[in-house]
Amino acid sequence: MDQTFRKAAGTRRRARLSVLLCLALVLGALPGTAWAGGALDGGAPALAASGGTSLSAIGFVGWQDVSGGNYHSLALKEDGSLWAWGRNDYGQLGIGSTISTSTPVRIGTGTDWKAVSAGFSHSLALKGDGSLWAWGLNDYGQLGDGTITDKSAPVQVGTGTDWKAVSAGQYHSLALKGDGSLWAWGNNYYGQLGDGTSGSSTNTSTPAQVGSVTDWKAVSAGMNHSLALKTDGTLWAWGYNGSGQLGIGSTISTSTPVRIGTGTDWAALGAKGANSLALKTDGSLWAWGYNGFGQLGIGSAVGTSTPVQVGSATDWQAVSAAYHSLAIKDDGSLWAWGRNADGRLGIGTSGDSTNKSAPVPVEGDIGWKAVSAGQYHSLGIKEDGSLWAWGYNYYGQLGDGTSGSGANKNVPTLIDGPAPDGTPPESSTDATSSYTGTATITITATDPAGAGEAASGVKEVTYMLDDDAPVVVPGDEAVV
Q1: pLDDT digits (tens, 9 = 90+) for 434-448
Q2: What's the rounded Cα separation, in Å, for the pair 410 and 348?
Q3: Which residue from 254, 248, 243, 321 is spatially nearest to 285, judged by alpha carbons?
Q4: Could you write out the DSSP letters of every residue in 139-169?
Q5: Which end of the chain is more exposed for a tag (fewer CB within 10 A), N or C?
């Protein structure tokens, strides 16, 4: 579907079209254009021409959910399509190859994806029919397909169609079924599968039920530990506990679920590194575990083996934990703390000297609706459906088309969003344009006979877009 842009009513704007005169293509619609990072006058996203890049093939569709892995990123659009970018050495992008990409690439053609989770180097996702799919690194059986062979495209985990939630850890995976049962597979060296065993010989490459109870509500897989919430509001943990990440008041690991405290008011949870975050029903935020970079947000770099409240605020709405932590408040503001190497906090600075041991606001306005802390980078989605990223970007995991040394970003960077006026561009087959600033568009066109220029070389032509007076390219019938 080509993306076209219509001029906003009642505006007068000058558009410069750098026309590559050649004999290959007569100007018609403007295929392969998409709003991307850069800027129009006034700081809005620039109109970038793109020949066959993934996002350019469709009109803007809002982003719904996002998940950051070690060096890769996954995101779900509102139309049910699934996208990936970043490092791909084990096939963790799911695009059928092991070639990395610095821009979002669509995984298959399906429009029925509903949930996604990025692990260290493997990925998990659920479809609308309740089926579970996995791809990427599989050395411990973390894909759950009965093998230890890496996969570069999604493979179905079993034949069940009753899965409802999933979480990918470092080398293990957790999932819930519709009946409230909890399942785990992959690496079990520290007992993170919760089946009462541990050690390298206890890994499993297919889902195994954790206990027999069926009242589990939510799960989160950390580096080598697991967290789960029950329907009665109780919180449970198991696996490696060397830094107190289980929150049970000790540093003794356990291979079966152990209850954290006596509270029955836990509402949400997050684990990715060796620390844990959780929200209570009153909107308070709590943290425990490793705290060497201040990622617990309790004002120090000292760890704790029991939950400690983060400040006194009771308006927290969503959390995500790694070596840095991210959280959204009820007003849509985004906050970050912990390690800030490579700018992953999004506060305009970078380096370990700028680590924060208490929550600080992320640069930018409010309006955040989803966030994910990757191991070294951050991802977020705003209420308008726009996708943003910041932090470490050596492997292109931010998705802005850059990678390598010097590509890191220390403030949220727009990856994909609606048109500058806030209205998603319409799709059409004409070539009318809609924007509210000055943009440079590179297109290919045939110089028609009598236009006054030879049909070769490069010529820059400037046109004026007046209110409702279309400008016709000389000798061609397409309006711009």
Answers
A1: 333 333 434 343 444
A2: 5
A3: 321
A4: TTSTT-SSS---EEEEEE-SS---EEEEEE-
A5: N
